[in-house]
Design brief:
heterodimer, A: mainly alpha, Serine Threonine Protein Phosphatase 5, Tetratricopeptide repeat, two-stranded antiparallel sheet, 5% strand, B: mainly beta, Immunoglobulin-like, Ferric Hydroxamate Uptake Protein, Chain A, domain 1, 10 helices, globular, disordered N terminus
């Protein structure tokens, strides 16, 4: 029993010692699988030049959702004559979001409007951080990348200015909440202009892929000046023309085949200036097949995921293309077949569609709401759907394209002088490529219609229609009301208003 | 352990013995154990008297006694209030054990209050002890099921018959949103142990610490309450072996009301859908479910050797089948306990080892969903070449439709879980009343999961497309190292008993995991056992993912407690705990939690007639809650496809705190035939952690990386009543004895605040959550979280009938009926509440001769459920009727043909219910003399679970739903962590409820 007694003493001593030893255990939180802030600073400074160059993608890649469902693309297209998402029985009710979008009855609670805002400010905040961190990490390479990011940030603020009007301009890192107070639209305009002016000299004058270079910045400036009348009440046609001319003097050229710019492997396009370099691995989110195709069309393209049967065009827009227009392949219409090209696709629930169960996309919509036939509406076919695609395409999505720059120049010239011959020639360049007769003269109507045909689903339609004033009219059978001018901006999203009490809701939505 | 004592009598007896013992001459020493014969629990303070004399003693806290008896003594008489006394002749043996019969009127028992055990009368908090005899019976696979309905204020929601599903446990409602919403489980002193690591057959008692003053000693782990599990141990002087076997036959109890093939055809004919009828009659549910047969075997051996050694070993085997095909698990659990006392009982060393090995195959709850919604006229298989890509399974195609048989047969999800718990504890009494102890435990949980979707599977397998099939392996180890050291000091000063505890405790939790997954499998994919068989050639191929992760956190604590007992009349307790956690922000890592409570034996003070017990208790205590994950207060970056990205915005939060006041009365009248307690509590949770996804100017938004902050304030209060009445009291063992127990609880919770100065849930303090989801209801939410209002508000439009075309109308905020399409968010109102107001349980135990009979009823009142089956599939829309089978309840209205769905009050239903949860009939065999050499006792029983449910709710199960895991639509995975603010949503992808019939046999050796 002696051993037990000594065990008792030992045990007591041990207990007290363990207690004392561990009582000062520090409560530091060790990180194993992620990178701490200190580590990140060290790593940035030690990256190879190639790796360091890629660090800016942390900001660019925030744009993954731009061309997908429920974001910037959706609100700039469904609110126009180009696209509509009818309610197809039980599908696409979505709380009425898409019906309201087309009718311009959008509210501060629309998910898509909030997603767009979040995407842009997220890209801005990442740019703000890298603009500070990169020059500090590598004083030789960092400043050029910071300049590029300032140009990209200017693009983000251009979008915000265009879609929301009065918005806060965050530009510092760490976040400075005094910047949370919104600036008037004209000041946001000025910020974009000043930022671009500050960085032109630092930007590359060679072609870049998915990155802002000198020409992309000039194309952005052209967009800004083209819409100056909308944004600050005073047009800047000459500045727009000058900016376009800078781009036209660059290393870009028109593709002979319009669709070279939109095919799955379109990274070689000579015409595209600045694209979102979508890729199923490095930049995901371009889920157009899902957005537009009928469920059964999965078999046509051997898609990895079943489509959702939503987005289609209106019959009027479809019919605005001549039969001979090469660009009519922007649409998928008519009977649909499986991958083999012969097996008929069957719509499992034809819901009384007079065409019967065989899948047949008819341009005519029987209704916008609530019971549009599931096969109704011509679908978006402009971007090639590669066989076997996952739910994110590999096609690059053009933000700035040479054709658009030419059309911007044409419009600026036309606005200054409706009979400008150079303007007519630039517009007719598009028409000739599309195999349709040249216009004899330009009118606002035929100009806007041509912009629609040429730039269908490039997410510029709302911007163009606002400038031409048509956005506010009863432009389609489903958009029958006339809007107040304040509908030219979307509401400030409810969640953002709540998170930032300095924000002020725009006029139409108070 | 249970002690039953009439304390006044006991004190008198003790004095008497003390006075007379000096004159007795010891001839020999008899020792033994006094137990309750019905359940083997030890009785504390039972009297042991040499028959015909005044010489005797009382049993100690372990139910043991030791008595010097004169040589001429012939027998000992054992007695205890509420039990029949028992006289046992003395033979040659010096060990005499006495199992007493007839115990029904519980007065005093030992309560585990965490770190210390108290006599029940010393308890000043709200603690409910449930002992093995009172546990739920029947088809039980998991420890919490033993308690369901037994503890006022403890709600255990087991929404389905899925044997692999863990229940949601709520004590007095919700007390944290972002921390652990389930009570802390402490097994034999080790906190935070998985309930699955203890086999229900090994549990002796479960003590539920309900209020803040009781849980304060657990500090930051205690806010959601504490369940203390004490496993069975061997006892000195006995050797017992036990074998239990149970067979279970289980079938679906309830389904949504959906159309059969004939009704479906008629509905489509009426809608003019000519092609809906695919020409067959298929009972999909029958094809994907079965009558399940499960079995449980448990073998235990326990006892005590001389020289202070006790042991218990048990072996439990469970083969549980679910009613869904392939669903179930096989589990082997072993537990071993060894206790050795030495040095005149001054040193006590305990070793515990438990190991569980479980092989589970998980059901796809979607199988139930699509069995309901899939076209009942479609064939299972088709030889049409169009269906070759699906392995010959007929697939209608279209959004959110999957052949249920193909889904179940072509999808596999398995898990191998290993749990090993090892503890060692030593306690040494240095001086009389002064003891030190140390406890070390290591709890290891290992999971290895495998998931496989066939290359021919439409459901998650991609069949008909490209990049076919899916296989993944996931493994995770979670290891907890736990150490504590306690010093206790007991002293009696005059009439005052003082009990002091001080201690140090630390735990370190490590989590490490690894996952590999691939698509693009060879056409005859080789399941998750060969993920490498993928045709993908690089790890960057779509669908190929490799990830690994490790996290670690520490909790370091000091704790102290002082317990006072003045003359068994006045009682008091003070506790203090200081916790430090690595998971909180710098400078906010430590928190102090305390409690003060007191009690008074009014019966003794006021000397009331006709009252056997009347005790008042009041306690106040604070507890805390920790976040669920580490690293929330750090800036973190990650590298992803060659780009360094910000991975987390740093939060800066400290402890979430709960303060709770509890006042209660315990009573006993009619000779303690009627006993009970009434408790009132009021809780105030402050600095409640909440996550804000939208922060101005930051680069991360949404669910992954928003800011966590101490933002919330939630108050709740309720009343809990428990009554136990011995309606018919048996005079002897052959008489009828009937005990009825009833408990109920009320609950109300108000969310006062969910914002900080900088972070708001909304300008008006309103937030809509719980997305209804596709198809057709994206951008629509079910739940409104609103500052100043109760939790669980269901939110939507008020239905105003249909127009001539069958489109729904709603009442706008002016009360005018307008088309649903014109509904604005301002027109939405609160249309129900998912939180129950009133929960009750009612148990009846009858015994007559060798028969015992138990019926247990349970009910919940005052809550509503959002019936998502009805929202999605009820309307008679033409296209919808063709695509999805219809839900046809009493609310079905063929005139209601609206296309777009939305959340309307017509889909929110009252879900009050009364359920006959369990009926058990047992028979204790009278063993013939020959057999009694072999068996000590034998009992057979038959029972039924979920016998009947009385409710007006038309969904599968009216049970409240406390957590929402999202929709899981069109083959999407559901969330792993549910949202505790989204209460009352009855989603579609839920396993159905089951009814089971069980038979069993218990043998004691």
């Amino acid at each position: 029993m002696k051993s037990f007694k000594s065990f008792g003493k030992f045990f007591l001593t041990a207990t007290v010692m363990v207690g004392m030893a561990t009582s000062c255990a520090d409560l530091k939180e060790d990180v194993y699988s992620e990178i701490t802030a200190d580590e990140q600073a060290r790593i940035l400074g030690s990256l190879s030049d190639t790796e360091f160059d890629k660090t800016v993608l942390a900001s660019y890649n925030k744009f993954g959702g731009l061309a997908g469902h429920n974001g910037l693309f959706s609100i700039n297209e469904v609110s126009t004559d180009e696209l509509i998402i009818p309610v197809r029985g039980g599908d696409w009710g979505d709380g009425g979001q898409w019906t309201r979008m087309h009718r311009h009855e959008y509210t501060p609670t629309e998910e898509s409007i909030n997603n767009t805002w979040s995407m842009l400010y997220s890209a801005i905040a990442t740019a703000n951080r890298l603009i500070v961190q990169l020059p500090a990490a590598k004083p030789d390479k960092g400043p050029a990348l910071a300049a590029e990011l300032r140009a990209f940030r200017a693009l983000c603020y251009f979008y915000l200015c265009d879609m929301y009007g009065n918005v806060p301009v965050f530009s510092k890192f760490p976040v400075d909440l005094t910047e949370a107070v919104p600036k008037p639209r004209a000041e946001v305009y000025n910020f974009v202009e000043q930022e671009l002016n500050a960085v032109y000299g630092s930007l590359k004058k060679t072609k870049t892929y998915g990155r802002m270079n000198f020409y992309a910045a000039k194309a952005l400036a052209a967009k800004l000046y083209l819409n100056a009348g909308v944004y600050k009440g005073a047009p800047e046609w000459d500045k727009a023309i000058a900016a376009c001319d800078e781009v036209l003097g660059g290393p870009y050229a028109m593709e002979a085949d319009y669709y070279s710019n939109f095919k799955s492997a379109n990274e070689g396009s000579k015409e595209n200036i600045f694209v979102l370099p979508y890729d199923p691995i490095t930049l995901t989110g371009f889920n157009l097949p899902q957005m537009t195709l009928h469920y059964a069309s999965q078999a046509t393209y051997k898609l990895q995921d079943q489509p959702w049967n939503g987005y289609c065009t209106t019959a009027d827009f479809y019919n605005s293309y001549d039969a001979a227009d090469k660009r009519k392949k922007n649409f998928i219409a008519g009977p649909q077949f499986a991958f083999d090209g012969t097996s008929v696709l069957v719509d499992s629930s034809p819901d009384g569609d007079p065409d019967g169960p065989n899948l047949n996309y008819t341009p005519q919509l029987n209704a916008h709401y609530p019971n549009c036939f599931r096969q109704a509406g011509a679908r978006v076919g402009k971007y090639e759907f590669a066989i076997g695609s996952p739910n994110t395409l590999a096609n690059d999505f053009p933000i700035f394209r040479l054709a658009d720059v030419k059309l911007m120049k044409a419009e600026s010239l036309f606005r200054k002088n409706a009979g400008d011959a150079a303007a007519l020639a630039l517009v007719n360049e598009m028409r000739t490529r599309a195999n349709v007769p040249a216009f004899a003269s330009l009118t606002t109507d035929n100009f806007l219609a041509e912009l629609g045909r040429e730039k269908f689903v490039e997410a510029w339609r709302r911007n163009d229609m606002i400038r031409f004033g048509k956005y506010f009219t009863a432009y389609s059978g489903y958009k029958t009301s006339v809007d107040a001018a304040c509908k030219g901006v979307f509401p400030i999203p409810k969640g953002q208003l709540e998170a930032n009490p300095s924000l002020v809701q725009s006029e139409c939505y108070r | 352990m249970k002690i039953k004592v009439n304390f006044l009598k006991a004190t008198l007896l003790l004095l008497l013995f003390a006075a007379t013992s000096g004159f007795a001459l010891a001839q020999r020493t008899i020792s033994g154990l006094v137990t309750d014969k019905s359940n083997g629990e030890t009785l504390i303070g039972a009297s042991v008297i040499v028959t015909g004399t005044t010489k005797g003693t009382l049993t100690d806290v372990d139910g043991k006694y030791s008595l010097d008896v004169p040589a001429d003594a012939t027998s000992l008489t054992f007695s205890f209030t509420g039990y029949s006394s028992l006289t046992i002749p003395l033979g040659a043996s010096n060990v005499v054990n006495a199992p007493l019969e007839g115990g029904t009127t519980l007065q005093t028992f030992v309560v585990n209050s965490g770190y210390v055990s108290l006599k029940s009368q010393e308890v000043t908090n709200s603690i409910t002890s449930v002992r093995s005899g009172e546990f739920n019976k029947g088809n039980i696979n998991e420890a919490s099921q033993l308690l369901q309905g037994k503890v006022a204020g403890l709600t255990i929601s087991r929404p389905s018959g899925n044997p692999n599903a863990n229940p949601e446990i709520r004590l007095r409602g919700i007390s944290t949103i972002s921390g652990n919403t389930q009570p802390l489980v402490v097994v034999d002193g080790i906190p935070g142990v998985s309930l699955n690591s203890v086999d229900p057959n090994d549990i002796l008692t479960m003590d539920v610490l309900k209020d803040g003053s009781a849980a304060a000693i657990y500090g930051t782990q205690g806010s959601s309450g504490v369940i203390l599990i004490t496993t069975k141990k061997g006892t000195i002087g006995t050797t017992s072996a036990e074998y239990n076997v149970q067979l279970v036959n289980e079938s679906i109890a309830n389904t949504p009301k959906y159309m059969d093939a004939a009704q479906f055809k008629a509905a489509n004919a009426a809608a003019g859908n000519a092609t809906a009828d695919k020409g067959n009659t298929t009972d999909w549910l029958d094809l994907v479910t079965r009558t399940a047969n499960s079995q449980t075997h448990s073998l235990s051996l326990g006892g005590g050797l001389s020289k202070g050694t006790t042991y218990r070993a048990s072996f439990n085997y469970r083969d549980a089948q679910g009613v869904s095909l392939k669903d179930g698990f096989k589990q082997l659990n072993g537990r071993f306990n060894l206790t050795q006392t030495a040095l005149d009982d001054k040193l006590k060393v305990t070793f515990d080892a438990a190991a569980t090995n479980r092989n589970a195959e998980y059901a796809f709850d979607e199988g139930f969903r699509y069995a309901v919604t899939y076209n009942p006229t479609a064939p299972v298989y088709s030889t049409d070449v169009a269906f070759a890509p699906y392995g010959g399974y007929h697939q209608i195609g279209g959004f959110d439709t999957y052949n249920p048989v193909a889904l179940v047969n072509q999808s596999t999800n398995t898990g191998q879980n290993k749990r090993i718990n090892l503890n060692a504890r030593a306690e040494y009494e240095i001086l009389s009343g002064l003891s030190v102890s140390a406890l070390y435990g290591k709890a290891t949980e290992s999971d290895l999961n495998g998931t496989f979707y066939s290359t021919k599977g439409l459901f998650r397998g991609g069949a008909g497309g490209a990049n076919l099939g899916y296989a993944s392996r996931f493994t995770e180890d979670r290891v907890k190292d736990f150490f504590n050291s306690l010093v206790t000091y007991k002293v009696k000063v005059d009439k005052l008993d003082v009990n002091v505890l001080a201690g140090y405790e630390q735990q370190v939790n490590n989590k490490e995991n690894f996952r590999v997954q691939a698509r693009n499998l060879p056409s005859e994919g080789q399941s998750y056992n060969s993920v490498g068989s993928t045709n993908a050639t690089t790890v960057s191929d779509p669908g190929v993912r490799i990830s690994s992760f490790k996290a670690r956190n520490q909790l370091v604590s000091y704790l102290g407690r002082v317990g006072l007992n003045y003359d068994d009349t006045y009682f008091g307790q003070v506790s203090l705990r200081r916790d430090g956690s690595s998971m909180l922000a710098e400078g906010k890592k430590t928190g102090v939690f305390y409690s003060v409570s007191g009690g008074a034996n009014l019966n003794k003070i006021l000397k009331l007639n006709n009252v056997d017990n009347l005790k008042l208790r009041v306690g106040y205590g604070t507890t805390g809650a920790l976040p669920r994950t580490e690293y929330l207060n750090q800036t973190l970056y990650k590298s992803s496809i060659g780009v360094i990205e910000l991975a987390r915005n740093p939060s800066n939060f400290g402890w979430e705190r709960k303060a709770e006041l509890n006042a209660g009365i315990d009573f006993g009248v009619l000779g303690n035939r009627l006993t009970g307690s009434v408790d009132y509590y009021s809780r105030n949770i402050t600095d409640m952690l909440y996550y804000f996804g939208t922060i101005p100017g930051t680069e991360l938004q949404g669910a992954d990386a928003g800011l966590w902050a101490n933002a919330g304030n939630l108050t709740s209060s309720g009343i809990e009543v428990a009554v136990n009445y011995n309606v018919i009291k048996a005079k002897s063992n052959d008489d009828l004895n009937w005990v009825t127990s009833f408990n109920f609880s009320t609950l109300s919770s108000v969310l006062n605040k969910l914002s900080t100065d900088q972070l708001k849930i909304g300008a008006q303090g309103r937030l809509e959550i719980a997305a209804a989801g596709l198809p057709g209801t994206s951008n629509v939410n079910y739940v409104l979280v609103e500052e100043g209002k109760t939790l669980g508000q269901l939110y939507g439009y008020k239905y105003a009938g249909v127009d001539a075309a069958g489109n729904a109308k709603i009442f706008n905020k002016e009360g005018v009926a307008v088309p649903l399409a014109d509904g604005k968010s301002a027109d939405k109102v609160v249309i129900g509440n998912g939180l129950p107001k009133f929960t009750f349980g009612w148990s009846n135990s009858l015994r007559y001769g060798a028969f015992d009979f138990n019926i247990f009823l349970r009910g919940v009142l005052g809550h509503q459920l959002m019936n998502e089956y009805r929202i999605t599939y009820e309307n008679a829309d033409k296209g919808e009727t063709e695509k999805f089978n219809r839900i046809q309840t009493k609310y079905y209205d063929a005139a209601y043909k609206q296309g777009p769905r939305d959340v309307l009050d017509r889909f929110v239903e009252k879900a009050d219910f009364l359920r006959i949860d369990n009926i058990t009939l047992g028979y204790t065999l009278k063993l013939p003399a020959a057999a009694s050499n072999l068996f000590k006792n034998a009992r057979v029983f038959a029972s039924a679970n979920n016998v009947a449910t009385f409710t007006g709710y038309t969904g599968v199960n009216p049970e409240p739903i406390f957590v929402d895991y999202g929709g899981g639509n069109n083959g999407a995975e559901r969330a792993l962590v549910g949202d505790p603010l989204a209460i009352g949503i009855d989603r579609r992808s839920n396993y159905f409820t089951t009814r089971s019939f069980n038979i069993g046999l218990s043998l004691g050796f």
